Amino acid sequence: MKSKRMIWTSSILALTLGITACSGQKSEAPSAGASSTDKGKGVITLKIMSATQTETPGGPAEKSIADKYMEQHPNVKIEFVGVPMNEMYKKISVLAAASDLPDAFTSTPEFMRTAFGMNITEDLTKLFGADYLKEFYPNMIQESSIDGKLQLLPWTATPQALIYRGDWFEKEGLKAPETWDDFLEAAKKLTKDTKGNGKTDQWGFALIGTRNTSGGTRFLPVLRSFGAEEIRKDATANGLPI
Asked: Which of 145, 166, 192, 228 has its CA 20 to 30 A from that of 111?
């Protein structure tokens, strides 16, 4: 994979993104979020809704890449709209209802089917081309597509890992868990009342439990390790559709 090429292009297009579909949205004047061209100067304005703009150092880095791109392409003006990831889906849905979508927005595998069903995204396969996309791992392209239509650019993947307190393990004479039985034993032994007041104040395991993508994606690896699979639209069981 040519990482430099991938990062440059994906950053300009708002990280993991969906390109909004303009077909079917007819109006005499372009909406606030649509690409527009200044007839006098020939300037193309791209509005990008990015969750990265709300973060540091990602936001400044993304802006720096866009600035360099605009220096090389004076006829292009990139405008960022920063929206936190946990608010992105709601914001996009509201703008879609108002026909005021940005040209590109941060998207995820969790939201892409909703966006696809709303008919607000384009097939990115046509934009990037087969030669460019073959540099990605095939399974990432597959997971980012619906009916063979690429819905977002999978510019990054998040490896899952269990982080543990080495000092606590050393103090209790424990080794890093290799099985679920090891994990359970360590979690029980590390859950205790350290102040001696009858109340547990140290926990052997903690997992984010928020009802959003952040919490859900952290629990999926646990389910998968037990052989569970997510229900998919095209899933089957015993040869029959689910």
From this structure: 228
